[in-house]
């Protein structure tokens, strides 16, 4: 009898371990697909206790659109009408942007100013930049040191127009377009909003395009 109880306990333990490993593997595959293009090496560790995990073998996973890509993440697991939230730790490895040399505050970043480095994305500071094209011609807001991961808060886009500059305002609507000249009242980068005082004295606002024109949709 004691032998049978021991075998039963061993089988139950093996089954629990097998299910836990299956859940880890399923979640790793889920996050590997979710992180495609960011990371090519993903590992997931489930933090939720066994008794709080989904009861079926192949639950459907989903994550809200604003959920973090890595680090400590909550995932919804659904088995039919049963919904449970699983806490997981997601490790992801990939490329991110770092300064390749010392860069003073106010400098415009050039191709040689930055480089890609491979490492743990889940250990990076918030809003770290992964796409090197995103920083070209951006201006630094602080001094940077070699090897420092770049964050969005460290940069701003270079100004396409500056306050006091003469600009062309293009107002367009259904079947018509009107052009006029004015003076920019603020600095603005491409795709940002700019306020312009027209020659009539009227102040209008619109979006800066790549040519430095101010576009207004009526």
Automatic annotation (TrEMBL):
<keyword id="KW-0282">Flagellum</keyword>
<keyword id="KW-0969">Cilium</keyword>
<comment type="similarity">
    <text>Belongs to the FlgA family.</text>
</comment>
<keyword id="KW-1005">Bacterial flagellum biogenesis</keyword>
<dbReference type="Pfam" id="PF17656">
    <property type="entry name" value="ChapFlgA_N"/>
</dbReference>
<feature type="domain" description="SAF">
    <location>
        <begin position="94"/>
        <end position="156"/>
    </location>
</feature>
<comment type="function">
    <text>Involved in the assembly process of the P-ring formation. It may associate with FlgF on the rod constituting a structure essential for the P-ring assembly or may act as a modulator protein for the P-ring assembly.</text>
</comment>
<dbReference type="InterPro" id="IPR039246">
    <property type="entry name" value="Flagellar_FlgA"/>
</dbReference>
<dbReference type="InterPro" id="IPR013974">
    <property type="entry name" value="SAF"/>
</dbReference>
<protein>
    <recommendedName>
        <fullName>Flagella basal body P-ring formation protein FlgA</fullName>
    </recommendedName>
</protein>
<dbReference type="Pfam" id="PF13144">
    <property type="entry name" value="ChapFlgA"/>
</dbReference>
<dbReference type="InterPro" id="IPR041231">
    <property type="entry name" value="FlgA_N"/>
</dbReference>
<feature type="signal peptide">
    <location>
        <begin position="1"/>
        <end position="20"/>
    </location>
</feature>
<keyword id="KW-0966">Cell projection</keyword>
<keyword id="KW-0574">Periplasm</keyword>
<dbReference type="InterPro" id="IPR017585">
    <property type="entry name" value="SAF_FlgA"/>
</dbReference>
<keyword id="KW-0732">Signal</keyword>
């Amino acid at each position: 009898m004691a032998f049978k109880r021991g075998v039963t306990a061993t089988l139950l333990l093996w089954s629990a371990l097998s299910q836990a490993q299956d859940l880890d593997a399923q979640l790793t595959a889920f996050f590997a697909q979710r992180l495609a293009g960011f990371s090519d090496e993903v590992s997931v560790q489930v933090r939720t206790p066994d008794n709080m995990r989904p009861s079926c073998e192949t639950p459907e996973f989903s994550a809200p659109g604003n959920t973090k890509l890595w680090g400590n993440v909550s995932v919804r697991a659904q088995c039919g009408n049963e919904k449970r939230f699983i806490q997981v730790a997601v490790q992801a490895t990939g490329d991110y942007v770092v300064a390749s040399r010392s860069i003073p505050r106010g400098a415009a970043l050039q191709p040689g100013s930055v480089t890609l480095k491979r490492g743990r994305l889940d250990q990076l500071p918030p809003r770290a930049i992964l796409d090197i094209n995103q920083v070209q011609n951006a201006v630094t807001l602080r001094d940077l040191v070699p090897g420092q991961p770049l964050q969005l808060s460290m940069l701003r886009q270079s100004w396409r127009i500056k306050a006091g500059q003469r600009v062309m305002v293009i107002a367009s609507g259904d079947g018509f377009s009107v052009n006029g000249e004015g003076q920019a009242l603020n600095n603005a980068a491409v795709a940002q909003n700019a306020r312009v005082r027209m020659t009539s004295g009227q102040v209008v606002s619109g979006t800066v395009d790549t040519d430095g024109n101010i576009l207004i949709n009526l």
